[in-house]
Amino acid sequence: MAQKDPYSLLGVSRDAGDAEIKRAFRKKARQYHPDRNPDDAAAEAKFKEIQEAYDTIGTAKERNEYEQQQRMSSMFGGGGGPRSGGGMDDMLRQMFGGGGQSFGGMGGMGGRQQRQRPQPRQKGSDINVGLNITAKQAEQGGKFPFTFKRLKPNQSGAMEATSVTLQTTIKPGVKHGTVTRLRGQGHDHPEGEPGDVLLSVRIQFGEGRRWDQSTLVQEVQVPYSTLMLGGKVKVKLPSGKSIRLSVAPETHIGDRRKVPGAGYDGGDLELEFVLPEFEGLTKAQIKALEALRDKGL
Predict the structure, then answer these.
(1) Which of 124, 154, 207, 296 could form a disulfide with 187 if both were Cys (CB 3.0 to 4.6 A apart)?
(2) What is the CA 119 to chain-centroid distance, rounded?
(3) What are phi and psi of 45, to 5 degrees?
(4) C-alpha span between 153 and 278 (Å, rounded)
């Protein structure tokens, strides 16, 4: 059975940072916790899946390792070897984009290529790598190391996964999602030249903030009564400055308010209204909610 995608299980995008993933995990864990769902085997199984998903992608290091394992697994059909029903040549063509050539020698992937006619020089696969940096690091720029796995030939000529650490220079004020191509640093090809590394910059803003493509979004927790009746809430912007934000009556969860120039590097910031997360309710709050329920709210 194929492994379930941890991002889907937690309900987050593949671009999510540590804080967003942790918040999503807590929310799901509370929902399916065995204490809240006694004698519910389905809820218990879901809780275990959510815990495993968080253990898999909870930190930037764990996410990079998971994504690299997924890329390697897809190359080898998910089992570390050729797909069932296919030979070594099929597997190599899948990995390296071969144009119908045959690779000789089961003892290693570096055997002499058997050709019927001249073929264009082949190239190894590219590797997508994410570089997570803070907003301060992005503003200042600098040199940053990153690690990934790359297919390279060993002494016998067989291809194997090798951990590689490189260093890249980031210019001050780099944009989120900027991709740099590092030529010749991707997977090796047994009969051609190596592919490239595509390094994507991911700027992390911490708890409650995420990227929606090129727009920085910050969640603002607003009580239900304020959403319905209107009022003001205090919001701390990424700069550290606090503002009093007016909330119009009958505002919906998920509505956004744009704050020009309050985002990264002078860009706009979008404030998204969400409900607060409660660890528990007081007796007075429960009584108030029951009264609202009786009124149809």
Answers:
(1) 124
(2) 38
(3) -65, -40
(4) 54
Paired tokens of 201 = 């910059």
* Separation of alpha carbons 33 and 12, rounded Å: 19
- Condensed to tens digits (0 to 9), the pLDDT of residues 176-198 reads 999 999 999 999 988 889 999 99
Residue 107's pLDDT is: 45
Pair of tokens at residue 165:
């650490």
Q: Please, which pLDDT band fits residue 276 given cuts at 50, 70 and 90?
A: confident
List all residues 6 or more positions away from 168 whose beta carbon is below 8 Å from its beta carbon: 131, 143, 144, 146, 180, 182, 199
Count CB atoms within 10 A of the CB of residue 172.
11
Radius of gyration of the chain (CA): 25
Q: Are strands 215-221 and 269-274 parallel, antiparallel or unpaired?
A: parallel
How many angstroms separate the CA atoms of 46 and 25, rounded? Answer: 12
Q: Amino acid identity, residue 286?
A: I
Instruction: Tell me how far apart the alpha carbons of residues 11 and 128 are, in angstroms, rounded to a whole number.
Output: 22
